């Protein structure tokens, strides 16, 4: 889930392409909500695992992310929500309530670019779990 409006057309097209490619491997959707609070409320209402993408989170490699996703799917096979926060991140209460905190990078990324990175990494995780040659590292 991403906060704010849909990204500019070039980034949106790239995200859509990764969503399309991932469908047979690791289906996911991108959901935009106006505020971080609205993201949080939607994710909690769906149940399942809530993962916050936060600068204080754990960093992991792509294969490690694939294994985390497989683990989350075993916990809540119907729904895993990865939330991208606002510029000021998530509240302490939200961090405590989330099942996991992940950091995409030590770098600060614009929100829309972070969304593209998440989409690509979810596709990559699906290929890793399926033994597909897309990931060579």
Shape: globular
Q: CATH-wise, what's the superfamily?
A: SPOUT methyltransferase, trefoil knot domain
Question: What is the third-level CATH name, the topology?
Answer: Alpha/beta knot
Number of domains: 1
Spans of at least 5 consecutive residues whose pLDDT stays below 50 are none
Structural class determined from secondary elements: alpha/beta
- In round numbers, the mean pLDDT is 88
Q: Distance between the terminal alpha carbons, to the nearest Å?
A: 27 Å
Number of strands: 5
Task: Give the count of helical stretches.
Answer: 5
Which CATH C-level class is it? Alpha Beta
Q: Which CATH architecture would you pick?
A: 3-Layer(aba) Sandwich
State Rg.
14 Å
Give the percentage of residues in beta strands. Answer: 15-25%
Order of helices and strands: EHEHEHEHEH
Summarize the structure.
The protein has 137 residues and is of the alpha/beta class.
Structure commentary:
The protein is α/β, with parallel strands linked by helices. It has a single domain, classed as Alpha/beta knot (3-Layer(aba) Sandwich), CATH 3.40.1280.10. It is 47% helix and 16% strand. It has helices at 9-22, 36-46, 62-75, 92-97, 111-130, and strands at residues 2-3, 32-33, 49-58, 80-84, 100-102. The strands form two sheets. It has a three-stranded parallel sheet with strand order 4-3-5, with helices on both faces. Helix 1 links the parallel strand 1 and strand 2. Helix 1 packs parallel to helix 5 (111-130). It is globular, with a radius of gyration of 14 Å.
């Amino acid at each position: 889930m991403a906060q704010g409006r849909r990204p500019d057309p070039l980034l949106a097209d790239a995200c859509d392409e990764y969503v399309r490619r991932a469908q047979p491997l690791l289906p996911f959707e991108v959901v935009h909500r106006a505020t971080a609070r609205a993201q949080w409320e939607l994710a909690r209402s769906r149940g399942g695992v809530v993962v916050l993408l936060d600068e204080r989170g754990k960093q992991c490699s792509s294969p490690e992310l694939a294994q985390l996703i497989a683990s989350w799917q075993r916990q809540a096979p119907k729904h895993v929500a990865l939330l991208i926060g606002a510029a000021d991140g998530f509240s302490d209460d939200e961090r405590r309530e989330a099942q996991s905190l992940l950091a995409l990078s030590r770098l600060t990324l614009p929100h829309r670019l972070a969304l593209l990175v998440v989409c690509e990494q979810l596709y990559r995780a699906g290929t890793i779990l399926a033994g597909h040659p897309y990931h060579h590292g």
